[in-house]
Specification:
- Two copies of one chain form a homodimer.
- With 304 residues, chain A is α+β, with helices and mostly antiparallel strands.
- In chain A, strand 3 and strand 4 form a beta hairpin.
- In chain A, helix 2 runs parallel beside helix 3.
- Chain A is globular and about 60 Å long.
- Chain A starts with 5 loop residues before the first strand and ends in a 5-residue tail after the last helix.
Amino acid sequence: MLPMPIIECIPNVSEGRRPEVVEAIAAAIRAVPGVRLLDHSSDASHNRSVFTMAGDAAAIKAAVLAIYDRAVAAIDLRSHTGEHPRLGAVDVVPFVPIEGVTMAECVALAKDVAQEVASRFGVPVYFYEEASANPARKNLEDIRRGEFEGLAAKMASPGWAPDAGPAAPHASAGASVIGARMPLIAYNINLDTDRLDVAKKIAAAIRHSSGGFRYVKAAGFKLDDRGIVQVSMNLTNYEKTPIFRVFDLVKREAARYGVSVLESEIVGLVPAAALRQSVEYYLQLEGFSGNQVLENKLRQRPGE
Amino acid sequence: MLPMPIIECIPNVSEGRRPEVVEAIAAAIRAVPGVRLLDHSSDASHNRSVFTMAGDAAAIKAAVLAIYDRAVAAIDLRSHTGEHPRLGAVDVVPFVPIEGVTMAECVALAKDVAQEVASRFGVPVYFYEEASANPARKNLEDIRRGEFEGLAAKMASPGWAPDAGPAAPHASAGASVIGARMPLIAYNINLDTDRLDVAKKIAAAIRHSSGGFRYVKAAGFKLDDRGIVQVSMNLTNYEKTPIFRVFDLVKREAARYGVSVLESEIVGLVPAAALRQSVEYYLQLEGFSGNQVLENKLRQRPGE
């Protein structure tokens, strides 16, 4: 039995004000066999929509191309305004390995889709994150700096030729950033105190930017309605910096201030493997496999 | 979105020596749309086969009836021998709620299937476990005592009229025990010692029969090849006696003898909910739902 391969893809499209355009894109995704549109949300002030979908490589590729088909026809960056930085009509397309698929396969898919986008729509593409071999062009923020308005000049400057497609921006659709990354886990830990300084100190201790774990972004916040504080995190690679390690360290750092952990919370979706990892850690579970989860066995398809 | 309802069913059939009979039953299960045959194994000395399958209520019912169709025609208890106690050709049929289905629904399914078995095949049925309202007829061992050979006399004695079907055994197929129960989890904890007495004392401390947790069966064993000992357990209701509570208590009891836990292991299948429960405990996770597991969202079907 082979596990059913699942790739998650979260295209960000530069349209958050015209529901009919967003709905047409959602409908185009839903029409692709083998793809599930898990979620989509639009923000009018950002003038941007985020679609979350999943499927195997072939189905996801078809869905991304269907999005370009609608978005390139309907969105003109020359008249687009919004708070969120953006380079193109289809701004960012990350491919995320969830199950039965490697990061290398997601990188290959990203490059394959990029070539197709470039040749079919004439939109230049930059690779990012795991799909990028160039350290200066790995981070989305670095690639997007200057936005659509500065794109023509940027593309003509040294080191900024695109990875796929024409050497100049598409007139109305700009450029796209396509790549592969691990799933993000939005994870919060609430502390039994109203001392914001404690949350901020713990956030500083655990996050990468100030010396903590490599794949943790963190900040401290007040939860005014409850009179407590929160360490709010993004875990950007749960395989290398797992949830349980982050939780245990926050608990220990909090104890150093005489503060207890009230609870933690996962916001939105989490891959099953990230939960299994924590079960394996705390129960000292050896030789356990996702195939032993009854529900997973049901989802397997016959194979060799 | 509604979760896809999953019922597990593990029919035990009194045939473990004729592969062609076992294979015909397996083929009949596989032929039912919406049912997945997850596993089947036969034991020649027990002369018995165990099939593990899953699906929704209607599909599972169809599969059970298909099993009776083959088993009642092919198996004659009058000439059946084997080490394992048995009452009938299809000996035991438990229905187990896995996801999106309640125990009450599994009990209703057990009773519905029993009526159909009785009327279609003339096989009398005893309800057991959650499907039984009679404390003297809840345990499989109590119902099966006397076996097929003593069945006619037992059925005629006070208190042993069947719950469904004729008042006397089927001539060749005997009777069946049909019911509903929670999933069993086979769970072992290995200790860093060769002292069997420690494993036996811990097993006695945690198991129901000698004063421990209500839904734990446990025994201590030697693992001779590794020179260590094991506390081997069946967890019969993980909702009420969860894995993490058993693990933590074994660890604490072991420490009382100066012994460490080397590792634990789950043998065979485990429902995802039993793992989520342990993650929620150790990470103090509040407000978490199985719907947040990305893979679960993919398996949901559209609903209200």
